[in-house]
Amino acid sequence: MKDVAGKVIWIIGASSGIGAALASELDARGAHLVLSARRQDKLEILNNGLDGKHLVAPLDIGDVEATQKTFEKIIERYSQLDSAIFMAARYAFHGTKLKDINYIHSMLHTNLGGAFNMLNSVQPYFAERGSGQIVLCGSIAGYRGLPTGQPYCAAKAALINLGESLKIEMQPKGVDVKIICPGFVKTPLTDKNDFPMPMMIGADKAAKQIANGLTRRAFEIHFPKKFTY
Predict the structure, then answer these.
(1) Is 143 a residue of the active site?
(2) Which of 16, 3, 14, 18 is nearest to 204 (CA)?
(3) Which of 54-68, 100-114, 214-228 is least confident?
(4) Which entry of 78, 125, 143, 152 is annotated as an active-site residue?
(5) How many Cβ atoms are within 10 Å of 226's Cβ, its own excluded?
(6) Phi, psi (5° rounding) for residue 181?
(7) How far apart are CA 220 and CA 159, in angstroms?
(8) Which of 212-217's residues contact partners 24+ apart within 8 Å by CB, and which partners?
(9) Average pLDDT over residues 178-185
(10) Which among 158, 172, 187, 228 has most CB atoms closer than 10 A?
């Protein structure tokens, strides 16, 4: 994808943080957006701030049937989809207290299972079309295991691995696959942390890095580079 202008881009996890900032950045660059997350009120506020011109599609990405119906709604509205970006995430603060096992399963269900739900809908479509873009949001927390952060780190490591295997499979079919690996970005999620977060950047700066990366050839979009290297 050489330019996002005029492209239909589905952002899953658009209600806050990097996802919301990315929506604003891609709107400014002329993309047609589909804004998905569980919180419809947040999506409506975001869309109203963008002149109400995008499709608000509330979605629990953990629900495979709802994900398919949302995909069908996108095709009905725009007759095409050019890029699907998975930004959805549950997050638990990296404390020393043992995390509730039910919450761990809910994190994995959203953070990893949700990505597979998205792929279930868009992967066959892009493969048949012979073009398109699949973008998964990993993290530098997926590079190495961090103490007390196992559920989040494990899911992000799995997304990186998933992106790598998808790229091998989908590139010959004309489908671009990318993985986003941010360092620390100031969002409502990182606001939960009580430990030092070096080289933190704002969500707007992160969104610019991602938007630039969508149109470049590199598989991985990682930042800030002094930190990720």
Answers:
(1) no
(2) 18
(3) 214-228
(4) 152
(5) 9
(6) -130, 85
(7) 12
(8) 213/178, 213/180, 214/1, 214/4, 214/83, 214/133, 214/135, 214/178, 215/1, 215/2, 215/3, 215/4
(9) 86
(10) 187
